[in-house]
Amino acid sequence: MSAQQMLKVFVTRRIPQEGMKILKRAGMCNLSVWDSDEPVPRAELLKGVAGAHGLLCLLSDKIDVEVLDAAGPNLKVISTLSVGFDHLAIDEIKKRGIRVGYTPDVLTDATAELTVALLLATARRLPEGVEEVKNGGWSTWKPLWLCGYGLSGSTVGVIGLGRIGLAIARRLKPFGVKRLLYTGRQPKPQAQEVDGEYVPLDTLVSESDFVVVSCSLTPDTQGLCDKTFFSKMKKTSVFINTSRGAVVNQEDLFEALSSGQIAAAGLDVTTPEPLPTNHPLLTLKNCVVLPHIGSATYSTRGVMSELTANNLLAGLTGSEMPSELKL
Ligand SMILES: O=CC(=O)O
């Protein structure tokens, strides 16, 4: 391709080299990269995207009308290095005939694994235990010290039995889970594999010992876990969220945790991200907060970046994408 024919692509962050290699090797992109581990400032995003044919972005980049306008009519494809797409103004993107690539499947195992790790860490109070060892709080073996809750014989409720929800359920069942409840828009045939019982949300919330949120963020799920939701949970139950922070009303969660309405919470996602270090949730021993690392294994992030690059190239050439979001 001649220099004039090269297609302009803006990449909003330094991404794993696997993906960059694919983009460079394709020889059709005039690449402009925000070459940093930190998010691109809004002004730089608006500047960088101007005239672009392709945009490779992250879940922390809000791609709204302003960005689409700044890009202008050349923009053919947006490829996000994430399975979630709540950061994209989908209606507007669709209206403009822009295609969207995303990264389902390749991060399912890593995210499910992290969810299990967070659930166990929260339920068995691992961060508190580690802290006590370091600060001298470990005086002797005590029968009731640092007791938590176990999965064996428990009821687990999964909100959203999609790819990741099912992968979480599959991993939790062998711990001796007695009942596996789930909710969602409709019953899923694949729930059979984990003996999943499709129940109304209220039943799931009130009967589960562990409530695991694994749904996508939509207008229907925004703020779903609020005061009323937490008031229906058992006092001994544990709440886990590895989907999106905005599914939870954090003030109501703080109240539920600090009043003893629920036993504990483990969050890999918050609003905002990062959660300010003076946030009330961080003062609670029964709240374990992780910095949105669900898919963070070296290999998963490598494969995600490859898929993101291949989606982008397919969008630029008008061919079939490995993972296109149906708009
Ligand atoms: O949250 C992570 C993702 O959407 O990929």
UniProtKB/TrEMBL annotation:
Record PROSITE patterns: D_2_HYDROXYACID_DH_3
GO cellular component: cytosol
Family: Belongs to the D-isomer specific 2-hydroxyacid dehydrogenase family.
GO terms of molecular function: glyoxylate reductase (NADPH) activity; hydroxypyruvate reductase (NADH) activity; NAD binding
UniProt keyword Oxidoreductase present: yes
Protein name, as recorded: Uncharacterized protein
Alphabetically ordered keywords of this record: Oxidoreductase
Keyword Zinc-finger among record annotations: no
InterPro entries tied to this protein: D-isomer_2-hydroxyacid_DH, D-isomer_2_OHA_DH_cat_dom, D-isomer_DH_CS, D-isomer_DH_NAD-bd, NAD(P)-bd_dom_sf
Superkingdom in the source lineage: Eukaryota
